Amino acid sequence: MGERPQAVRGFDPGVPSIARMYDYYLGGKDNYEADRRRAEEAMEADPTLLTTINGNRSFLGRAVRYMASQGIDQFLDIGTGLPTQQNVHQIAQAVNPGARVVYVDYDKQVVAHGRALLAGSDTTRMIHADVREPRNILEHPEIKLLDFDRPVGLLLVAVLHFISDEDDPPGIMAELRAALPSGSHLALTHASADGIPDVVARVVEVYRRTSAPGTPRTHAQVTGLFGDFELAEPGLVWAPLWRPEHPVSPEEAKRTWFYGGIGRKN
Ligand code: SAM
């Protein structure tokens, strides 16, 4: 099979990478001039973009803790990103030291950094695969760290908006959901132009000149990605409003333009 057009073809510091731009937003050091320049353009397009990014990252923490509180002790995190503060295994293992995590990313640099961080661990793995080919993830030898006869916490946080409509996100998600046993949970965040369309359009325009252009989706489209999973309260909402740990105003939350939600397979 030929390599997909969007798949990361290797390491090119001259092409702004969505993973390295995200690392820059989060204050990381694994980024280059081209990434920083494009990230600065995105921050000009949306002056409160960092609030959105931090809100997304906070949601990830709450999602892992929520799933752990529901008894989930094994996680599949697709679209992991470059290692940063409070990675999924650190959050999960703070609740349950034996928790297992399989990370997946299609960016070779993310995978190399992830493997360096996780070297020697028998509770974590890092797989190089593309979510647009879910079979490659589900049949990967390293996924055997997870026991698919017991509930799994599946995370796709800030990744599905990088999958175009032609690549059929609902079909991808249906395949991933079908592989999970009853009691499993799915947590995702997804960009949407429902709230502040002009701002989101400007950011989308900037991302057209990166390694992976973005496709914001509506509330109904993102809800559809959960299939028949039952959404936990409060449903699919602007991510900061999902079981916040500090008071958040709805107006402030709407400006963050990422939906977040968690569903359970019954
Ligand atoms: N999930 C982390 C978070 O929310 O903090 C990181 C999100 S980062 C914005 C998106 C990540 O998804 C990047 O590391 C990128 O390489 C990865 N990604 C994008 N498209 C992907 C694909 N088709 N398959 C696998 N990973 C992908």
TrEMBL record:
InterPro entries: SAM-dependent_MTases_sf, SAM_dep_MeTrfase_SAV2177_type. CDD domains: AdoMet_MTases (cd02440). Signal peptide: none annotated. This is Methyltransf_19 domain containing protein. It comes from Actinomadura verrucosospora.
